[in-house]
Automatic annotation (TrEMBL):
Organism name: Streptomyces chartreusis
Taxonomic lineage of the native organism: Bacteria, Bacillati, Actinomycetota, Actinomycetes, Kitasatosporales
Any one Gene Ontology molecular-function term assigned to this protein's record: transcription cis-regulatory region binding
Protein name: TetR/AcrR family transcriptional regulator
PROSITE patterns linked to this entry: HTH_TETR_2 (PS50977)
Keyword annotations from UniProtKB, A to Z: DNA-binding, Transcription, Transcription regulation
Length: 202
């Protein structure tokens, strides 16, 4: 998530230093958000954690806390969408692919800062993340629904439930499991086993 760009070698020293400073502020923001949530996190706390002046942080992130959270959230969205695209790029059974998605989400939950951050639920985020919240979930839901519909047509699965409704329910279960796993209230292995058992009746 915080890897340097492939073209970093061609940047000037000044540009590399700016990129490193920007990454340091994003990492500091991730730590503060994961610890304090969104509502209690402040620009002052993030700047202090990053070892920069508040004015410096605003130079890089003019919208402050909201912009930092949004960029971090979108980075994870992008990672989840890329992983899902790889899973569905090759042939496979419906249940196996859903289990693979579950494993991807569990791995996110097991990354302490990332898991706690991505599972933050705060009404104030409705404005901050208005057009990006749920972006990965929408992509995942469409992939799951299309896959289930295709297997229904070929008779590979017995169920004739609405593919979209089934996909939404699965995602709701996955997101709930992510939150619990991120807070170590549920073992990652148990979540994958439970999803496997859920899908076995199809």
């Amino acid at each position: 998530m915080f890897d340097q760009d492939e073209g970093a070698a061609s940047l000037t020293l000044r540009e590399r230093n700016k990129a490193r400073l920007r990454q340091a502020m994003l990492l500091a923001a991730l730590e503060v958000f994961a610890q304090s949530g969104y509502g209690s996190a402040t620009v002052e706390a993030i700047a202090t954690r990053a070892g920069v002046a508040k004015v410096t942080l605003y130079t890089y992130f003019p919208r402050g806390r909201e912009e930092l959270f949004r960029e971090l959230y979108e980075n994870i969205n992008g990672e989840l969408i890329e992983n899902a695209s790889q899973i569905y790029a090759s042939e496979g059974r419906f249940a196996d692919r859903v289990i693979a998605l579950t494993q991807v989400l569990v791995k996110v939950a097991q990354r302490p800062l990332i898991g706690r951050f991505y599972s933050i639920d705060d009404p104030a985020l409705d404005v901050a993340l208005d057009d990006v919240r749920g972006r990965a979930s929408r992509v995942w839901a469409d992939l799951i629904a299309e896959d289930l519909a295709a297997e229904q047509q070929t008779g590979t699965v017995k169920t004739q439930v609405s593919p979209q409704a089934f996909a939404e329910l699965l995602l709701g279960a996955m997101r709930s499991a992510l939150s619990k796993a991120a807070r170590e209230q549920e073992a990652a292995g148990d979540i994958v086993q439970a999803m496997t058992a859920l899908l076995s009746g199809l």
